[in-house]
Amino acid sequence: MKNRIIRGIPVSPSIAIGKAFLYSAEDISFFSSRRKGNVQEEFSLFEKTRRKSLGQLRALKSDLKRLGNKESTKLIDVQILFLQDPLFLNSVEKRIKNKKESAEKAIINFLKSLKINFKDIEDSYIKERYLDVKDVVDRLLKNIHNKEIDMELPGSDNIVVAKTLTSSEIIQMSRNKVRGIITERGGRTSHIAILTEALNIPTIVGTNGVQEEIEVEDEVIVDGISGIIVIKPDEDTKRRFEQKEREAAAIQQEFLKKKDLPATTIDGYSIDISANIELPIELSSIKKYGAKGVGLLRTEFLYLTSEEIPDEEKQFRFYSEIADVCSPDYVIMRTLDLGGDKVFKTKEKEANPFLGWRGVRFTLGAREIFRIQLRAMLRASAKGNVRLLIPMVSQVEEIIEVRKIVEDVKEELRKEGYPFDENIEIGAMVEIPSVSLLADHFSKEVDFLSIGTNDLTQYTLAVDRGNKRVSALFDHLDPSVISLMKMTVKGAHHNNKWVGVCGEMACDLVAMPVLIGLEVDELSLPPTFIPQVKNVIRGLSLKESKKLLEKVEKKESANNVRGFLKKELLKRFPSLKNILVEVENDRNYR
Ligand code: PEP
Ligand code: MG
């Protein structure tokens, strides 16, 4: 069949057309027939291998520096730091000494113990942190066996199709000048996203099961702007995407030039535009793409990249660095949002993790973990530009309880002489329909609300976005979701509280008239999408957006809303035609 469409998450906004190369890295779980030595020999082998790996990574880093890729060198820094991390070194040493394990077994067992923490995590971006560690472990094991890190590599006319890719694989592929990358795993904040964006490789991630859909040498279009993959395009489709490729690059450049202008509509309605980030490496993107501070700092990765719960000092350093970089703009720090069975080795499995012990339900149950995080965040608030955000709230009482704990922690810090922001604002995520329906009540208990359209859509439409069979039913432009958002804004504004949107809807250009029409006060989105979002907002007016919203509210399905809004948007921004280009049978997939 010609023009088969698959949708994924676009992470590197450019387009490529090429021949599919199905890539699968070799599994690391090999053992050689090497005879195990005594404790001292195993330990020296580990040390020798570790130093060799450090040397390779440093060489890789200077290669990247020469290429002018400062940001991606930070990813390599993470791996270098890992090889020097006392936690890792002590763990391997103990295993070799006390359990008499071989060097490779000790390394693999360390990785396994981490895997238990990561095992049931649904969020792909957290899974990616595990992959960074796996990447280094892979290198160590290969070095123990003196294997060169040589991969069967795609070339300059290829689009790489992989389940996932490690940082070194991506860098190697960039050297080989591959045209584009498609991965099954990964999200907007994954290392794949960060690296491919820095290396300027058109990339789409989060395309569950794509390796089964594409055959070797199939012609494939990777549209890193809209997230569309076209398999075996017909001539007409190919021509249109080639044109889009040429024009989109020019438009993106234009947008980038105006990134620092405010997002104010023609008739003077202003929306704050801030960034969603997760890792220190992303800090440089805040200014680069014109964000006003951070509207959503996800903190889960901190907990899942080490064997132990991160201590207060480690968290404090991380939060303070971000607050410093953003100052005087604010950083909204979200407290831990892990699912019930996704945390730590001791947790029992739940039948319905998405409806279970998640987000604030977990932190209220695991008080010590919560208090450590709150202490670190409060200490980082001393400059006055930190706000707290509570995820997965479903009951007003949860907020009241959180406030009590925050007050208690403040008292503790006061006694210990730590400075912090006495008036720190506390907001709640709106991810569950009950919160929208009762927004008036919730707003009385918080300083602001932030709508997480990813979960709000998932819980409203009962669609698991990660499930390929039903993901076509997932659309935040469903009139039911818009209706819940309207109730949220009404409830918040009635109580003089501001409302932000920090889910994927905040970077969907077609959704801008809805977001403006709803009069949301802030949008927080992945940094690379900020210039285009700002540009569209500046070309719309509040008055016309309200009219469009009225029409949207009368529609009966997400398909109709999306089709209608797209047409209206193109009337006002004909130049976006090539950015919003779709393919003949795309509608079948929505
Ligand atoms: C959301 O649910 O929209 C959100 C921003 O939170 P997360 O994607 O981290 O679940
Ligand atoms: Mg969420």
Question: How would you describe what is shown here?
Answer:
The two termini are 18 Å apart. Strand 7 (219-223) and strand 8 (228-231) form a beta hairpin. With 590 residues, this protein is an alpha/beta fold. The longest helix has 28 residues, at 39-66. It contains 23 helices and 16 strands. The chain binds phosphoenolpyruvate (PEP) and magnesium ion (MG). Phosphoenolpyruvate is lined by residues 296, 298, 337, 431, 452-455, 502-503.
Bound compounds: phosphoenolpyruvate, magnesium ion
Quickly give the structural class. Answer: alpha/beta
**Order of strands across the main sheet:** 1-8-7-3-4-5-6-2
Which CATH architecture of the domain at 1-234 is right? 3-Layer(bba) Sandwich
Contiguous runs where pLDDT drops below 50 for at least 5 residues: 27-32, 583-590
Please count the helical segments.
Answer: 23
For the largest beta-sheet, the strand count, sense and barrel status come to: 8 strands, mixed
Overall pLDDT metric: 86
CATH topology value of the domain at 1-234: Glucose Oxidase, domain 1
- What radius of gyration results from the CA coordinates? 24 Å
Shape: globular
N/C terminus separation: 18 Å
Helix content: 40-55%
CATH class of the domain at 1-234: Alpha Beta
CATH superfamily of the domain at 1-234: Phosphohistidine domain
Beta fraction? 5-15%
Q: What's the total count of β strands?
A: 16
